[in-house]
Amino acid sequence: DPILLISGDSFSEQERTRLETALASAFVAGPSDMAALPDAVRSSVRAIAVKGHHPLGGAEMDLFPNLGVIANYGVGYDAIDVTAATERGINVTNTPDVLNDDVADLAVAMLIAQCRNMVAGDDLVRSGRWSAGENLPLNRQMSGSTVGIVGLGRIGREIADRLAAFKCDIHYTSRSRKETPGWTFHASPEEMAEAVDILVVALVGGVETEKHVSRQVIDALGPRGIVINISRGSTIDEAALLDALEEGRIAGAGLDVFLNEPKIDPRFLKLDNVHLQPHQGSGSSETRGRMAKLQLANIEAFLAGDPLKTPVN
Ligand code: 8YV
User: Fold this and answer.
1) 100-276 maps to CATH 3.40.50.720
2) Atom of ligand 1 at shortest distance to CA of 76?
3) Fold exhibited by the domain 4-98+285-304
4) ipTM of predicted complex
5) Nearest CA to 121 among 107, 108, 139, 109?
6) Following DSSP, what letter does each residue of 234-251 receive, concatenated?
7) Whose CA is nearest to atom 9 of ligand 1?
8) How far is the CA of 304 from the centre of ligand 1 (A)?
9) Ligand 1 atom having least distance to the Cα of 282
10) pTM attached to this predicted model
11) Where is the D-isomer specific 2-hydroxyacid dehydrogenase NAD-binding domain positioned along the sequence (predicted)?
12) Is residue 265 predicted with pLDDT exceeding 90?
């Protein structure tokens, strides 16, 4: 009688327990075990709870003839083939908005950490080199910078609002021009990169935005350029970014997302002009609690025949 399949091992024990207790007949199976499940179990699945970035395509969906909803834990659903789901009459839900503040906070934090050399500062103090008389080299002011937000969606807007409070000159690209308080719209990221020092990438993931921050965009940033990415590794031409960082053609980067997480390109680890985070943008306990709650609310709404809270398709 399982109605809910909890996909994969990305959920914490607490998150899994919460789903299992809320929805009496739930069980766990990773994407690679789905095909091996007995027919009767597969037929009983009406909802799948997803966390993490395991691809879920039409072939997996076809294993579950009574599947009605795929509820993603996270705002980004690029690992789910939404077109395939729609074709099969399967609903997809995500967890937008509840994580905007945390992700925007982390973007700003990485930018400040990068400009003010905070990791090296911490190391100087801990290592005893400061007390022995060494000082941190002078670094770079963040307030008042000229910043380009690539993708002025819900998260991009929160980042821009924060940076505006830091007296930054705000530029942005977006599918359409937005109602903004004196911020500068650019038709392309290339054009924007010519005009700003700092790029903050807040795009959605998926094929449409792949390498949107291209080699040309990175080259156009120039030697004071800093790239911050809290979106998906796929949105930047990562090889081009690594080349520019290694050759010192841009000043640095602050990255929470990468290709092939968590086994990221080892070239990053050799660089001292990058600030690296383990895809923790939404990772406060408060926000993760809200995401789990919203995911569950979507599944419960579906099972009750009520309107979904945050439908994608
Ligand atoms: C992850 C995220 O979903 O919301 C998103 O799109 O990237 C994150 O919040 C979260 O880490 C769970 O995998």
Assistant:
1) yes
2) 6
3) Rossmann fold (3.40.50)
4) 0.96
5) 139
6) GGB-HHHHHHHHHTTSS-
7) 74
8) 26
9) 9
10) 0.96
11) 108-281
12) yes
